[in-house]
Amino acid sequence: MSSREHILSRIKKHKPQLIELPDLSVFAHEINTEKLVNDFINTSTTNASTVVNMIGQSINFDTYIPLFIAENFGDNAITYTPLNSSNKEILDFKSNHIDVFVTQPQIAVAENGCMWIHDKQMQQRIAAFASEHTLFIVDHKTIVPTMHQAYKALQINAHGYGVFIAGPSKTADIEQSLVIGAQGAVSNTVILV
Amino acid sequence: MSIHAKKASDFISNEERTNWHDGALWHVRNKRDISASKIPEWELLRSTASQIKENVLSNLDNYLIQFEEEAKKNGVHVHWAANDDEHNSIVSAILNKHNAKKVVKSKSMLTEECGLNHFLEDQGIEIIDTDLGERIIQLRDEPPSHIVLPAIHIKKEEVGELFHAKLGTEKGNADPTYLTRAARTHLNHKFFEADAAITGVNFAIAETGGIVICTNEGNADMGCHSAPVHIHCMGLEKLLPKAEHLGVFIRLLARSATGQPSTIYTSHYHKPESGKEMHIVIVDNGRSEQLGKEDFRNSLKCIRCGACMNTCPIYRRSGGHSYHATIPGPIGAILQPNRNLQEYSDLPFASTLCGSCSDVCPVKINIHEQLYKWRQEIYKHNELPKSKIIPLKVTTNILASSTMYNIMGKLARTSLKLLPDFLLYNKLNTWGKNRELPAPPKESFKEWYKKNKHE
């Protein structure tokens, strides 16, 4: 008997009587746009993200974003973005330093600042992690209260890979001292539109 | 003296350090409380999570079959390992197939349990732990002392010295930011050199065949996305039925662990990136046996948040290494005896049975009750040391007879008062170690009650 069969037969023999799954509809949360936006700004800020609130202002992304990057990350900052990109070449992140990774998450979560991005919004998965800084453009209408609503709205396997990112990478592994910038991005900026 | 007692006694010999360790963990426990109190439906989340996990255990074989089928459809290679040896051989075979000599690994208690690092190192493979805390203890050649905070027992000055010796940082510099940056640069090279990446798994989804990994540092993703092949090792109890169940568990995990509302990265892997290879190793290693033990199967619900460690008065003051086990603390003390009753028979006694662990457990494992049940199992299997058996027998006789009880009570009250210190405070009386015995009362409650019952 293979290990697979052996394991499965032992589980079958040992498992208890079937217990039903609980009802998840009990986790309902108020949808109040103003509160969602405020909560999202608060949780993101707590997670050490910089939030720029541009809600209600008409922006021309093509000019605003490059200007924003130049002002905040330097005139020569190298940007990587799958947005409006016709360049499908695979970039070698080992030999190419990227300053800013820019994308537009599909969904954002008020309770914890999580923002969902998937393969299409990254082009290359490593980009969201190996770039020095991340910059997310979040449409405030995509903010949901909690992870329950997020998973309801998403199809986690619509793409081969998807990730919730809630801020810059961090660690407190040395004496519980919080350090922003561990192995992933060292800063995260959210532009709320 | 039991191993735990011996190691704990070594740990507390440095009082200042013990207090520091105790305080650091209590601080984390506090953050958990603050975070949980902000969620009005917290208790509902806990009971829901508990029931989901109970459903999983009661239908585990079917969920595993479904998970495998879906994962294979996604182009993922699925392997089954009955025990630690088989797990290590599977991983090693994958690495050999790819001629992988340099491997990066993100935190995985399962690979610790299986002793993967040493197994691979013996074959000449370089394996680098990429979580900062894990890297610190790896460079010190030590096991983790906590499942979420592996280097919680180490002071920054010690990390400074270690990094100076191993990574060439400035001598005497113990600034956490400076040291973290040095590790970032060091690990960045390792990620891009790696031939393969290995990770643990926080959750696996039967419905979609995908796995979820939670980190703050981004190290699991850096590894998986830079190496041509990634291997995910999971205990077979990690399954959840559907994606929607993740909502419950992601909300609970980080809040229980460190008080954060979620980890910074919650990564969902379903398919490898084009041109790459993805493997999942499903590991039993005693879990399917444990499932058959009615009193103890509940411990398989554990999601490895570490909340029970942070709250435990024994863990905080004895340190993770005193448990001489992969998983320390209260949850370790009920998981380890399943593996080897003889070797870990001391662990269920490393508890005051105060129940705080059960109170904070996000999936409502009855940890303190299981600790108590393990004590009975250990007695039944004759694994109790003489130092416990003899006093237990004597106490049984005393408590069984009211005459004996009255006499012994009186004797104790008198002797506590009259006996010289060297008889009270010596090696044989462990209750007199490091503490003053209480002042004896003049009379027993029974005597007092007799005198006063008519008043």
TrEMBL record, chain A:
Ranges where the LUD domain occurs: 82-193
What are the boundaries of the signal sequence? none
State the SUPFAM superfamilies in the record: NagB/RpiA/CoA transferase-like
InterPro entries the record matches: FTHF_cligase-like_sf (IPR024185), LUD_dom (IPR003741), NagB/RpiA_transferase-like (IPR037171)
Q: What is the protein name given in its UniProt record?
A: Lactate dehydrogenase
**Record's Gene3D superfamilies?**
NagB/RpiA/CoA transferase-like (3.40.50.10420)
From TrEMBL, chain B:
Keyword annotations: 4Fe-4S, Electron transport, Iron, Iron-sulfur, Metal-binding, Repeat, Transport
Q: Which Pfam families match?
A: Fer4_8 (PF13183), LUD_dom (PF02589), LutB_C (PF11870)
Gene Ontology BP terms? lactate metabolic process
Q: Which residues form a coiled coil?
A: none
Q: Name one GO molecular function term.
A: 4 iron, 4 sulfur cluster binding
- Gene3D superfamilies membership: Alpha-helical ferredoxin, NagB/RpiA/CoA transferase-like
- The chain positions of domain 4Fe-4S ferredoxin-type read 293-313
Reply yes or no: does the keyword ATP-binding apply: no
Please give the PANTHER family that the UniProt record associates with this protein. Answer: LACTATE UTILIZATION PROTEIN B (PTHR47153:SF2)
What is the protein name for this chain? 4Fe-4S ferredoxin
